[in-house]
Amino acid sequence: MSVAIVDYGSGNLRSAAKAFARVAGAKGNTSITVSADPAVVAKADRIVLPGVGAFADCMDGLMRVGGMVEAVREAVIGRGRPFLGICVGMQLMASRGVEYGSHAGLDWIAGDVVRLQPRDPHLKVPHMGWNQLEGDWTHPVLAGISPGDHAYFVHSFQFVTADARHCLATVDHGGPVTAAVGRDNLFGTQFHPEKSQAVGLRLIENFLGWRP
């Protein structure tokens, strides 16, 4: 099985690749490739899209890699390959982001990426550090992760899905904040699995074994 981590100039690629390689090493039949080549990504059995920074910058960076958006779309939407978006990589699945203006996303899961607005004025934005997950533990990518388990976050914006069923996990930061989204063969986390220790490694293992 081949896994492509998309390199488009944004994201903690080294840490993500290391975490995936650690999990894949135990399986023995999985290759992990970080690539900016659309042809490599198009052939992969599973695709991972990381992302760090502003929504518009990440979307622009993805589009600047000639043919990458088309390759990912054909593989994921056209052929149903399992897809994992991480942090802004998850947010790019939205219809639009409103950071520094209104910017179109991939529009794979309807909704908007909006600024965090905690009800408690003492809570800081960005939301940074460990937080307890609550969610739909029936989803295969969340199997073995329990209510109250912690994951690591660094973000100032959140993905608000148009359909509440597509929000699969939340955390509390002055109100519910989206932690994971998904539908069909799509899954995304606002938190960083590669920085979330046992929880993150379990999620990666689940993703690698997922058969949507």
Report on this model:
A hairpin with a 5-residue loop joins strand 5 and strand 6 (103-104). The protein has one domain (2-209): 3-Layer(aba) Sandwich (Rossmann fold), CATH 3.40.50. It has helices at 13-27, 38-43, 55-64, 68-78, 88-91, 197-209; strands at residues 2-6, 31-35, 46-49, 83-86, 96-97, 103-104, 111-115, 127-132, 134-135, 150-155, 157-161, 167-172, 176-183, 186-189. The longest helix is centred in the N-terminal third of the chain and has 15 residues, at 13-27. Helix 1 crosses helix 6. It is 28% helix and 30% strand. The chain starts with a strand and ends with a helix. The protein is of the alpha/beta class and 212 residues long.
Please tag this protein with its features:
single chain, 212 residues, Rossmann fold, eight-stranded mixed sheet, 30% strand, globular
Count the E strands. 14
How large is the share of residues in beta strands?
25-35%
Question: Kindly state the mean pLDDT as a whole number?
Answer: 95
By secondary-structure content and strand pairing, the structural class works out as: alpha/beta
The biggest beta sheet reads: 8 strands, mixed
CATH architecture: 3-Layer(aba) Sandwich
N- to C-terminal distance: 15 Å
CATH topology: Rossmann fold
CATH class: Alpha Beta
Secondary structure: elements and pairs:
Layout: E1 2-6, H1 13-27, E2 31-35, H2 38-43, E3 46-49, H3 55-64, H4 68-78, E4 83-86, H5 88-91, E5 96-97, E6 103-104, E7 111-115, E8 127-132, E9 134-135, E10 150-155, E11 157-161, E12 167-172, E13 176-183, E14 186-189, H6 197-209
Parallel strand pairs: 1-2, 1-3, 3-4, 4-14, 5-7
Antiparallel strand pairs: 5-6, 7-11, 8-10, 9-12, 12-13, 13-14
Helix pairs in contact: 1-6
